[in-house]
Structures are given as structure tokens and as C-alpha cells.
Amino acid sequence: MKLLEDLDYNELTQAVSEGGFPRYRADQLNDMRLRHRDYSEANNLPKAVKEYFSERYLAQSVKILETVKGKDAEKYLFLLHDGNIVEGVFMPHNYGNTLCVSTQVGCRMGCVFCASGLNGLIRNLSAGEILGEVLAVNALKGGTPTERAIGNIVLMGSGEPLDNYDNVVKFLRMIIDPKGLNFGARNISLSTSGLADKIKKLADEKLGIVLSISLHAPTDEQRSALMPVNRSNPISELMAAADYYFKKSGRRIIFEYALTAQNSDDNSIKQLIKLLKGRCLHVNLINLNYVKERGMSGLSRKRVDQIVETLNAAGIGATLRRSMGNDIEGACGQLRNKYLSSNAAEDKA
Ligand code: SAH
Ligand code: SF4
């Protein structure tokens, strides 16, 4: 069955006219889905419209299965219509609430420090499913289509967004659309492990969103050991793509760097400075979240502070990203994996 959230506004008006209904029904259906409501909750729609659409398009396809409240963040397990589960994280900030969403069930990039890719890629999320994560949380938090409860969106949940390129770009267009949630592009960040060709393609879409690149190592040798994607997208190509994105969008690139023993000795930091110097960028350091299956962990607070100071002293803007939600399973992918394994244990019992 098709999903109602997968239709962009033009496709929705087309579906309404194909059904022989007046055009304003599209706005009512649009309002219904933006409020994350099902057909049964749309009191202004006549029975004929509800019947016609519910036979053809599933509404409210993403549901919140579980909410885990932490000290400074709230995590969700989203249930998809086929039983798959992805996760999201809501982080309240004084400059606007941020929601982190997933773009794939699993991931096939195989970064050695990440929990999302432990079982490989299960499937892509459709544009409407990514949108559904945002709509579900907006409704949960009391937001409406015009008075949003979410200020910023980051595509940093499970999945490699540029490995699901068409659906992600359609989602971005739908959420920026004034007929959608009317988000400002500068309030949306996409994080990628570094698919160079797709970064250039994204620049050419001229969406104006913020690009974050997961760098995590200063040399090809070190980066390939942590991130297999580097073998086909070496650092020189990645930096050229980043420069192209900056030139086209005018937005400074964010480089993410998760600190762990393999990438944080003095020599690595020296090489990192050499690589990044002279570019308009910002470095987001993350102390690596412990992932049991990978046996990797972060650094001492003292060493982390030293690295921030060294980068800043070299003229490279770097800040440590506050690790939100550590008390409720920190890193991407951990929550879902924990949920699945505890349920598997129950099934066996
Ligand atoms: N696939 C995309 C976006 C999702 S991951 C990407 O890789 O960029 C979001 C961020 O979390 C990335 O920067 C990723 O490298 C980082 N990350 C993954 N596992 C982590 C861990 N154990 N500790 C800290 N950051 C981690
Ligand atoms: Fe995939 Fe990103 Fe995790 Fe790498 S860090 S495995 S690209 S989700």
C-alpha cells in the first residue's frame, strides 16, 4: 500500500483530482497528515473522501512505539508500517528544540565505531517515513503545522542519508515547502560519512541545508581503518567535494570527529590541523560513545580539553559536542539494538 505522507503537495492535489474530488480536499488531507492524524480523526472530510483515500493510501504510517526520557534528551522508537523500527532523539535547547531522525533501517557503511551498522542495511526509509518521524514528534510535543514544536532537524540517526539520496532529497523538499512544515534550510543539517559524488550532487540541488561530514581521521590509512567508505572516497576527493559544497551554498561545513585512541594522538591532531587549515569550517568533536559490540571507547576529559585547545590555538574553530542522552543509551543505533535484543530474549523465554 502507498503512504499518504509520501506524496508531495503537487502529487496530493493530483491524487485528489484523480479521485474526482474538489481541490480544497487536498488542503484538508494535507492538514490532517501534518497534524499526524488518521482519516478517522479528520472530521471535516466526507466519508467518500476518507473511503477513497484509505483504500489507496496509508495515513499516519510512522508511530511512536516507545519513549525513553533521559536527563537532557528524549528518545523514540518509531514503528514503521512493515514492523521495522528506527529511532529518533529530541533534544530541547534554549535556541530551539532539535530532532534527530533516521534515514535508513540499519546502514551498510560499516564504520567500526558505530552501532547502527552492526546488522548491515535492512532497507531505505521513504521520504514520507522520514517526514513521519518529524510529524509524530511534532504532534507529541503539542506542535501544529504552523506552530512547530521542533526548531531544528538533524539527519543523524541510523543510516547514511546520501546512500538513500532520492528519498532524502524529496523529504528535504517536502519539509522546506511552505505547504509542508515550512522549515528554514539553515535549520536542517545532513550528516554524511562522505560520499563525495553525492555531496556534489546535493550542492547542485541548491537546497541550502547545512552539511556535516563525518571525518574522524586525518589520513587515508587511519580513515579507511575506521570507515570502509574511505576506500572508494579518499580524503582528497572528500575535501574537494566539501569545498564544492561550500562554494555553491556559502555555508560553512561542519566536520565531525569522534575522539578515540586510534585518531587522537599528537601526530594525528597535527595532521588534522594541516588538512583543515585555511578552510571555512567548524569542527564538532564528540567523545566516542562506548559501543559494547565494537569494544571502542572515548578519551579522558583532560585529553579531550587539550585537543579542543590545540585546534583552537591553531585557528581551527572546534567545540566539544555535549553528548546528550548518555543515560538512555548514547550513540546512534544503541537504543534500537538494545530494544531488539531484549525482545528477542523475551521471545526465547
Ligand atoms: N551516517 C551518517 C549520519 C548518522 S551517524 C554519518 O555517518 O555521518 C551520526 C554521527 O554519529 C556521525 O558523525 C557518526 O560518525 C557518529 N557516530 C557513530 N557512532 C558513534 C559513536 N559510537 N560515538 C560517537 N559518535 C558516533
Ligand atoms: Fe552508517 Fe553513519 Fe554509522 Fe557509519 S557512522 S555505519 S555511515 S550510520
UniProtKB/TrEMBL annotation:
Residues 93-327 form the Radical SAM core domain. PROSITE patterns: RADICAL_SAM. Its EC number is 2.1.1.192. GO terms for molecular function: 4 iron, 4 sulfur cluster binding; metal ion binding; RNA methyltransferase activity. Its cofactor is [4Fe-4S] cluster. This is 23S rRNA (Adenine(2503)-C(2))-methyltransferase RlmN. Pfam families: Radical_SAM (PF04055). The keyword Metal-binding applies. It is found in: Cytoplasm. Keywords: 4Fe-4S, Cytoplasm, Iron, Iron-sulfur, Metal-binding, Methyltransferase, rRNA processing, S-adenosyl-L-methionine, Transferase. The keyword Methyltransferase applies. GO terms for cellular component: cytoplasm. GO terms for biological process: rRNA base methylation; tRNA methylation. It comes from the Bacteria.
